[in-house]
Design a protein that fits this description.
Number of helices: 9
Distance between the termini: 5 Å
Strand order of the largest sheet: 2-1-3-4
Number of strands: 4
Pfam families: DUF4276
Organism: Acidithiobacillus sulfuriphilus
InterPro entries: DUF4276
Largest sheet: 4 strands, parallel
Structural class: alpha/beta
Protein name: DUF4276 family protein
Order of helices and strands: EHEHEHHEHHHHH
Strand content: 5-15%
């Protein structure tokens, strides 16, 4: 049984979100979030961090690396993460295969964290009641991972129109407020579901 999950994230708003989400997904399993300064900082330092863990990582611990896709090619980014894990001597979930023990799972938020909020619009409504309930049915918003032009910018526009964050979206505040309302089993974002699947697989080790 998994004793501890270590999660690498690239920025503070993802850290704030996971602080509320992971307890809903992991029951009593311990977790630790390691935040980097940005995506480039995470990718730059990840090889050394994973090499360090490879020398002592207990069998009942696992690592989850979570990055935003942004404008990157998803396949290339995933291959980069897989290569870093392999060169560090750690077995990834992808290489281990379904149902087998692994040490590292690599997951990508498409295109960024705020897509997960669009995937659970009921949570956004609970946090900010003036936003329209019909957003997920509108063209351009039906696929949370396929929203064009930046998901945080889209969320900011909707919240501003509802008279929230008139001077600009405060991402940390928004992340904490929405994450408290999120219910993982109703989220329609495929990248969120892949993240939840990785957490579930880790806790089953």
């Amino acid at each position: 049984m998994l004793e501890k999950l270590i999660v690498f994230v690239e920025e503070p708003s993802m850290e704030a979100t996971l602080e509320h989400l992971l307890p809903k997904l992991m029951n009593d399993v311990d977790f630790e979030i390691r935040r980097f300064q940005c995506k480039d900082d995470l990718l730059k330092n990840l090889p050394a961090r994973l090499r360090g863990y490879s020398t002592w990582l207990p069998e009942n611990w696992a690592i989850l690396v979570l990055v935003d896709r942004d404008d990157d090619d998803c396949t290339v980014l995933k291959q980069t993460l897989e290569g870093i894990a392999a060169r560090a001597g750690l077995l990834s979930k992808s290489r281990a295969g379904n149902g087998n023990r692994f040490q590292v799972a690599n997951r990508i938020a498409i295109e960024e964290l705020e897509a997960w909020f669009f995937g659970d619009w009921a949570a956004v409504q609970a946090a900010y009641p003036r936003v329209p309930s019909t957003i997920p049915q509108k063209t351009g918003y039906r696929d949370p991972d396929g929203i064009l032009g930046g998901t945080w910018e889209a969320l900011e526009r909707i919240l501003k129109r509802a008279s929230y964050f008139k001077t600009g979206l405060r991402k940390m505040e928004c992340a904490r407020t929405v994450a408290q309302q999120m219910e993982p089993n109703r989220n329609t974002s495929q990248s969120f579901r892949a993240f939840v699947g990785a957490v579930s697989a880790a806790t089953s080790l």
